[in-house]
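Bit of a strange request maybe. I'm writing a small parser for structure token strings and I need a real example to test against, not something I typed by hand. Could someone generate the tokens for this chain?
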Amino acid sequence: TYDGVSGTEKGVKLLSKFCNKVFLSSRANLDMTSLPKINNVERIDDEHIQLGPVGGLNHNIDTSPDYYAQIASTRTMEDRLDTVEQVRKGGIKVCCGGILGMGEAEEDRIAMLVTLATLPAHPDSVPVNLWNEIEGVPVQARAQAVDPFALVRIVALARILMPASVVRLSAGRTGMSDELQALCFLAGANSIFVGDQLLTTGNPAAWKDQDLLTRLGMHIAPAQARPRVAAE
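Reply from user aminoacidic:
Good idea to test on real output. This should exercise your parser:
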């Protein structure tokens, strides 16, 4: 995850350089799709960015339009949506989802997915994250644990609303049982992020993920093929 690009041509060029230096090596040795995370961009032109082996750019809207002001003050929901649109117009695959457990109501979670589902084009992938405790962050004061079945329902709704999108079971998996992750896969999740760290939160060890997928009779799809029925 790379969280260092702001809305300038220089920033986008820096992202291009970063992608080609770091991710070219990783994908040459591992058949995976890489997704850097960006802050915001005002415009992306094809001649300014070369993502090389990177499978797209991640920029989450985090929550519903109505609840967004409760969790962020440096950007607006309109800023988020505009960045997503600029990435899409730039011909780059969009990875855009949200975070559950920040004190939002169930209606906010549904509204977040409806917002994504009514964009000019559905995101190529939709990460579903659980809030992870971060000391000193204002959101922590209002954070609430997400009921496991509520998570499964959100995954299922994402699959129904955006049938062609990859639904990524993302941050928070270290606190999920194997059984809960299996339910999420059955509900429509067909991708996970692999690696020890997701920006600021931990992630299950790769061998644990492989063991779980093997026990479930699932396989890792080649990054080039990306069939919708398997975990990436």
